[in-house]
Amino acid sequence: MTRLTISCIQTNIGPVLTDNLTTIEGLIRKAKAQGAEMVVLPENADCMVHDRAKKRAQSFPEDDNPSVNLYRKLANELSVWIICGSIAVPAVEDKCANRCLVFRPDGSIAGRYDKIHLYDAVPKPGEVYRESELFVPGDKAVLVETPWGKLGLSICYDVRFPHLYRALAKAGAVMLSVPAAFTETSGKAHWHTLLRARAIETGCFVFAAAQTGTHDGGRRTFGHSLIIAPWGEIIADGGEAVGVITATIDLDKVTEARNAIASLQHDRTFTLE
Fold first, then answer.
1. Domains of the chain by start residue, with CATH
2. Which of 48-52, 141-145, 223-227 has the lowest average pLDDT?
3. Could you tell me which of 77, 73, 67 has the C-alpha nearest to residue 42?
4. Catalytic residue positions, numbered
5. Taking Cα atoms as reference points, which of 115, 122, 34 lies closest to residue 78?
6. pLDDT bracket for residue 1 (50, 70, 90)
7. What is the DSSP pairing of strand 109-114 with strand 120-124?
8. For the purposes of burial, counting CB atoms within 10 Å of the CB of 72, is it exposed (0-12), middle (13-18) or buried (19 or more)?
């Protein structure tokens, strides 16, 4: 199977889980109506709450998680792959894992990935993010087998660590998922450039579903969900509106890009003096 119809969902997630799931369900059904065989959701595909205690209170174990239950049901009902960009799952003590789950069309879980790189940053004065206060980092890179080839998983801030994506590509990934809730400040400066670079240097298709707009507590996210080809071309850009972007991609383009520039085969060891 070399052709895949892929959709990225762009949302403006709020603090109320049930409202968010209703909205996301409608967008997933819209993606299916557009022919999607795989649907990618953004980071925080459960809720975005400024107060960390409230966020923790709306995190549930996988076996009793309303988000997981919904995405299982929809994957099975609609016969689509669903990449749940991330949800908060209780981990240790009062902290959570920021976890991506991949659902097969029968509703089973094909893979799970906990965000490795946590966003502790001050992109501009007065704008402070401390993910490590709520989340514990993962320590495993993850590939998922799909009918179209291997899919490498990542989440948001991971995009700034190119060695992760190179390792995924060298392990066989032909597609990379980068769901995000990228800040407006850093998004304007870096979002398109970083994602195109990850596609170009790995020769992979990149799927980046994103949050957009203003959220609880005044946080602003950049939007611009992207589907990017292995040569770096932007196939679809979601702009700033809530909605769905859909494209049919040809996985043979991965081989073409890697044959044109075989950089994955040209790594050399070196010393630093």
1. 3-261 (3.60.110.10)
2. 48-52
3. 67
4. 43, 115, 156
5. 34
6. confident
7. unpaired
8. buried
Q: Are 90 and 99 spatial neighbours (Cβ–Cβ below 8 Å)?
A: no
Taking CA atoms, 264 is separated from 33, 205, 242, 270, in Å, by 37, 15, 36, 16
User: DSSP character for 150?
Assistant: E
Q: Which two tokens stand for residue 95?
A: 């902290």
Within 171-240, residue ranges assigned H as helices are 184-202
Q: Give the DSSP H/E element, type plus range, for residue 31.
A: helix 17-33
Contact 226, 236 (CB under 8 A): yes
**pLDDT > 90 in the chain, percent:** 93
At 56 the pLDDT is: 87
CA-wise closest residue to 221 among 2, 13, 1: 13
Residue 204 clears pLDDT 90, i.e. is over it: yes
Which is it for strands 226-228 and 38-40: parallel, antiparallel or unpaired?
Answer: unpaired
Q: Which token pair is 144?
A: 């998922």
* Residue 10 bridge partners (DSSP): 243
